[in-house]
Amino acid sequence: MPVVAQKPENLVVGPDRNLWVIGPDGLARVTPTGAVTGIPLASSYAGRNFIVSGSDGNLWFTRTLTVSQPTSGSSFLVKADVRGQVLAQYSLGYYTPKGLVAEPGSTLRVAFDWFLKIEHCGAVPYTIWQRYKTDGERVGGEAGGILGLHGYALDTQGRLWVGGISEYFSGACVLVNNPRTLLGVVNQLGVNEEIAFTTRLPLSLVPARFAFASDGRIWFVGSDLRNLGYFVPSRQGFFFADLPATHSFNDLVWGPDNNLWWVDTARNSISRFTTAGSFLALGTSANAASYRDFDANPGQISALFGTDLATETRAAATNPLPTSLAGVTVAIMDNAGIEHTAPLFFVSPGQINYQLPPAVAAGFAIVKVKRGEQAIQVAAINVNEEAASGLFTFDGNGQGVPAGLILRVRANGTISYEPLAQLNPTTKRYEQLPIVFGAPTEQLYLVLFGTGIARRGQAVPYDFYLDNIAHNHARDTRTLADYAGPQRQLVGLDQVNVLLPRSLAGAGDMWCYLVNKTNIGLKSSGVLLKF
């Protein structure tokens, strides 16, 4: 771990096949054997500095002056030879660079943060590029930019890879509470050309620094600069290193010795990273009723999907639920830095059902599966008390006929229970049974089961919507759920009781769902009923 210039920030393989590091105080040349030569630079600079190896055989880097009101701009694009001697300096104006890439040919691309004004939303972060020739002449700004961009780098084929946030807009305003991480390629105009892979990830894991390995893997660091991982394009999968939280990865590069090198600003160091360590595949954790991923309500039943999660299939046989089944445990590191051990319903090689502990703090969290002391897989979730709930169905896929029953209350006080579905012996699927209201003196209650409905174990107000599938909107109905909260017998399981209005008699097929009264934008998964 060689010590380099104060606070090294950016790293590149230079034209001379040495590693070059830049920081506020200057450059450092590092040979593959770890020998360091420091090269101070004149003037005082602030902001992040970026360095690339140009196609003209020189080093190129950005610098930002600390002076408050320079006469010719505060940011510069600088050219230096492989001895670190400055050859030329070109003004970039007053905006602080946020990235630098050397394109094939004789141009460089400089990224700047911009703000796009959107009605009702104000200023939205926006990334634009300006291109420069190696003689300092500006080619022009890019007409297209990218919202929610965190990182970018040029691969060996001259393609610009970006990491950021997609699904940034919802109608006229910004949607950032449930982002989908983007890893992909953009063309010369900065418009999405090819999306390589998208997945739900917390912002801390959004790719922000890149290194392109000789075996095709794309290494990256998350935007918090503490999580290292790689992406395999042929497998469309993310893998993360199982590392202690003490590491800080400020930049990465695939070195001339076919090793991964990284700089740590806090330790003033550059290190060779062994890629033979423990890497965990990124799985998916979802609501066990609706199979909606990422957002999770504290206390809900969750289903985690992956491969080789357990060596056998086993279900819990005790209550309270065990925290270990067949040697498998599930740990959740929450947004407050507290680790929780999850109660387990079921484990198998491809799926684990667990309860998200009610005490988990709101915000992004990492779910880690272990067999004994060995970590097997991780998944990312966003713990959110306003997460959409799920209703269980007979087919177990979150669709179709709900898992529930009809409670009939007669005038004399007697009650009876009636099914909502029956199994078709030919198709092996459950089919709806019509709900018949009967005598005017009888009351019918719909009883459904789900998860993520209660809020940390407490009942909350919900409306129950019934929409006519044939678009006969005169039959559409909204009614208040009499009860929506814990079922009280099985942890994580919630129950919904709805007194059905007699106006639904003969309404036909209805699409039904719960809507949170405090946030009408949140719908549960939908189910089918027949009247």
Throw out a few tags for this protein:
Neuraminidase; Coagulation Factor XIII, Chain A, domain 1; single chain; Methylamine Dehydrogenase, Chain H; 531 residues; ten-stranded mixed sheet
Description of the structure:
This protein is mostly beta strands and 531 residues long. The protein has 4 domains: 126 residues, Methylamine Dehydrogenase, Chain H (7 Propeller), CATH 2.130.10.10; 117 residues, Neuraminidase; 101 residues, Coagulation Factor XIII, Chain A, domain 1, CATH 2.70.50.70; 141 residues, no CATH class. It is 0% helix and 49% strand. The protein contains no helices and 49 strands. Strands 20, 21, 22, 23, 27, 29, 32, 33, 36 and 37 form a 10-stranded mixed sheet that branches. Strands 38, 39, 40, 43, 46 and 47 form a 6-stranded antiparallel sheet that branches. Strands 9, 10, 11, 12 and 13 form a 5-stranded antiparallel sheet that branches. A hairpin with a 4-residue loop joins strand 41 and strand 42. It is elongated, with a radius of gyration of 29 Å. The termini are far apart. About 4% of the residues have low confidence.
